[in-house]
Structure formats: C-alpha cells, structure tokens
Amino acid sequence: MENADSQPRAVSNKPLDFFRGFLKDPKQVGSVIPSSRFMERRIIDYARLQRCRSVVELGPGTGGTTRALLEAMRPDARLLAIDLNPLFTEAVASISDPRLISQTGSAADLGEFLGRHELGQADVVISGIPFSTMPAKIGSAIIRAIADHLSEDGAFVAYQFRSEVARLAWPVFGDPRKTEMVTLNIPPMRIWRWEKTT
Asked: Would you give the DSSP letter of residue 111?
C-alpha cells in the first residue's frame, strides 16, 4: 500500500503518463487523456462531497481528478483511490495529502480495501473505469461490490463515454437519480449518479 504519508516521488508529465498507461493496457483506461477541469467540476457536483467522510475513486489515472476531489472534500474525510495499474497508483501516491490512500488492485475487491484501511462503508464511489471494455461478469461484480459497500444513503457516480455502466447498474441500482452529457471534455462523456435504495 502506498499513501500520501510516504516520501513524495518525482512524477513525470501527467498526460504522457496517462497516454503510456493507455498504450500499455487500453482496456483498463477510460480515455487517452485526463478529464477536463469542467468535467472534474461536474464530478464534484454529482458526488456532493461535503456530505461525505469516506470517498472512493475507482480508476484515478495520474491523479488529476484525485486532486480536484481532495480540494473539494471535508478536512475529516478520507479518499481511497484504487487502480489496477501500478504506474497510476504510484503517480497518485505522490500527492501529498494525509487524507489520501493509493491502492493497487481490482475495484471488485472494494470491500477488502475498505476494511484494510478501516474506512467503513463508502459514502460515495466515483468511477472512471471503462466498463465498456471489460467482461460483463467483471463489470457486474464491481457494481455489486459498490452496492454492497455503500453507506445507507451512499451514492455511486460514474463518468464514461459509453453507457455500458448504466446497463450493468440498472439491475442493482435501478434508474439513475440524474445524468447528463458533458460536452466540454475530450471525448465528451456522460455522468450518472445513483443512490442506494434500501
């Protein structure tokens, strides 16, 4: 496990690292470039971070959105950022913020990671991982893990340029609470918010 308490490391050009990650395994990266500032603001709006103490980010990439989340989070909140690609978790771990935990692993193991870091149930899970390029069985397992480890009034926020996540989420979460297309991003992406129903 790497976190912000470890010694900061020099990280090379973020867009270049992002593109290298895409070339290494394009099925695990949602886009060839990081999200725009406008997209980051919409993600923050959808996440309603001021209500959250336990925040999870799936697929943080090189940490652009991670930094935006940390800026918007409460001082007493914690952020668990999970990525399969160790290049990305190393980049995220270089962010100096004691509220941040950078974890290499599968989003399907969300419950294990929350327990390991004593974070309890997640108040919001924010995902940029590309559900459209992974096997449906794995995508469904990730959606189920998210639902199982959300707090009673928790939310799942996803941003994607394809809508496979909505198809996978429907049997578990039903219709999204809200959704919109964010055109000021390359590529344009749709964002969704689902809320846990009891």
From this structure: H
CB neighbour class for 7 (10 Å; exposed up to 12, middle 13-18, buried from 19): exposed
- Distance from the Cα of residue 86 to its chain's centroid: 15
Between 136-148 and 164-173, two packed helices, what is the crossing angle to 10 degrees? Answer: 40
Q: What is the pTM of this model?
A: 0.83
pLDDT digits (tens, 9 = 90+) for 59-90: 998 899 999 999 999 999 999 999 999 999 99
Specify the 3-state DSSP secondary structure of 7. coil
Using DSSP's 3-state secondary structure scheme, residue 123 falls into strand
Q: pLDDT digits over 100-139, tens only? A: 999 999 999 999 999 999 999 999 999 999 999 999 999 9
Strands, DSSP E only, in the chain? 2-3, 54-58, 78-83, 100-104, 122-127, 150-160, 178-182, 189-195
Q: Alpha-carbon distance 21 to 86, whole Å?
A: 10
